[in-house]
Design a protein that fits this description.
The protein is an alpha+beta fold. It has two domains: 2-95 and 134-272 and 418-434, no CATH class; 281-409, Alpha-Beta Plaits, CATH 3.30.70. The protein contains 13 helices and 20 strands. The strands form four sheets. Strands 4, 5, 14, 15, 16, 17, 18 and 19 form an eight-stranded antiparallel sheet that branches. Strands 1-2-6-3-20 form a five-stranded mixed sheet, sandwiched between helices. A hairpin with a 2-residue loop joins strand 11 (251-256) and strand 12. Residues 42-379 form the Acyclic terpene utilisation N-terminal domain.
Length: 436
């Protein structure tokens, strides 16, 4: 940050959230990150921004950007301000939506599905615990124009957080959006992403430059252009609220080992839409974990998996019966194919050991646990060959069954049409200059 400010940075912008870690953080309104690390980062950011007298812009606060996530971050920022003796003017942007609003908009034909989902219905809306509309840069621009020193935003596209200041200053949309896309993950666009956390982007009338901030780090046309493929299926087009970034004709030129200049990026305006993210709880799960080093089983892992799974289903049906409902059991063979689920090719050497994760899914937590308990004896002692002594598998924990709780799911993949980019956004002002 000191390097960037010394080089004349006009703003500090960072994206603080993602859907990468699943739906639970939106459904529960909690952060994936621990409070201490967020407070440390905000302390560094707020101190640097205040000293340089430049705005600090944070998007998708608290991981998921729901109202509770934003409030969690807001409380930390207020705590940091008090400890540092800072009195900033803070704009807080909320983009969580009420179910009544979305039902009305849906009935008016203002919500449409993205593949592979179909039309949205009220039942799906009701099944969500929290729903956010993903913001573009306009709410941030409005807050900055109104004099915000710090902007804490709800769910926002990564690029909108980084492009908003340049767009406010009248920089070309193509260059602003493309620069933001390149820099959205900081040093990920450099040749050594672990060498530093951030980069400096400089946007002008003809294009933009990206520069590393760690003196020993470098970037080149490949590392900069490649970031268009990050979380994006098309390396030339990127859909954003209000338009599409087109870099088909972009040119990347190395100015020196630390700087790359980009020209030719084009912004193609489209009708304004905001993506909806909705998360809610589903059914319940109970887990068990065993480790296996039995050489007979390790030489026949696929056969063991299939026979064990069939036996567990049969035991559940016999011991619990129809009361188990529409249950599901899975065995995930860690050390073999737990990540992909694909069968390893013939001739794959036997592993030294495997961990077998049992997952029972049922309509209630009690039933998921009852299924686990019913399966426990077979999960503990299950032979491949009945004429051999029973093997003993190593349970990782006692009690063996671990109640995981509900399964959280993303339930929406839709966009909502808006006439005004601010109409679904609520802004709260906290002016610490007015506090005693």
């Amino acid at each position: 940050m000191e390097e960037a400010i010394a080089r004349g940075a006009h703003a500090i912008a960072t994206d603080a959230g993602s859907t990468d870690s699943g739906a639970a953080y939106l459904a529960l309104g909690i952060s994936k990150n621990n409070r201490g690390s967020v407070k440390r980062d905000l302390t560094l950011l707020m101190k640097a921004a205040a000293k340089a007298r430049i705005p600090l812009i944070v998007g998708s606060c608290g991981q998921a950007g729901g109202d509770a996530n934003v409030d969690w971050t807001k409380a930390i920022a207020l705590e940091v301000a008090a400890e540092l003796g800072l009195r900033p003017r803070i704009a807080v942007l909320y983009s969580e939506q009420s179910k009544e609003t979305l039902k009305a908009r849906n009935a008016a034909g203002k919500i449409r599905a993205l593949p592979p989902l179909g039309a949205l219905d009220d039942a799906t809306i009701d099944s969500c615990d929290h729903i956010v509309a993903v913001m573009g840069p306009e709410p941030y621009i409005a807050a900055l124009e109104a004099g915000a020193d710090i902007v804490l935003g709800g769910r926002t596209t990564d690029t909108a957080v980084l492009s908003c200041y340049a767009l406010m200053k009248g920089a070309p949309a193509g260059a602003s959006w493309h620069a933001a896309k390149v820099a959205e993950c900081g040093a990920q666009c450099t040749t050594n992403p672990t060498a530093a956390a951030g980069v400096l982007i400089s946007i002008d009338a003809d294009g933009f430059e990206v520069q590393t901030l760690a003196p020993a780090n470098h970037c080149n046309p490949h590392s900069v252009s490649a970031h268009m493929l990050y979380e994006n299926s098309n390396p030339f087009l990127l859909a954003e609220p209000g338009g599409v970034l087109d870099v088909t004709e972009a040119d990347y030129t190395a100015l020196d080992p630390r700087r790359v200049r980009v020209t030719g990026s084009v912004w193609r305006p489209q009708p304004y839409t905001m993506k909806l993210e909705g998360a809610g709880r589903g059914r319940y799960q109970t887990l068990m974990l065993i480790g296996i080093q039995d050489p007979d089983i390790l030489a026949r892992v696929e056969e063991f998996h299939d026979k064990m799974l069939a036996a567990l289903y049969e035991r559940t049906r016999k011991t619990i019966g129809p009361a188990a409902g529409d249950f599901h059991i899975s065995l995930r063979m860690y050390g073999w194919n737990a990540v992909s689920g694909d069968k390893p090719p013939p001739g794959t050497p036997a592993p030294r050991e495997i961990g077998v994760l049992f997952v029972a899914t049922a309509d209630t937590q009690e039933m998921a646990t009852q299924i686990a308990k019913a399966c426990n004896p077979y999960f503990f002692h299950f032979p491949l060959d009945l004429d051999k002594e029973l093997p003993s598998h190593a349970f990782a924990f006692s009690p063996a069954d671990i109640e995981r709780g509900p399964v959280y799911e993303f339930k929406l993949n839709h966009v909502i049409e808006v006439e005004d980019p601010l109409e679904l956004v609520r802004t709260e002002w906290l002016d610490l200059r007015e506090r005693p």
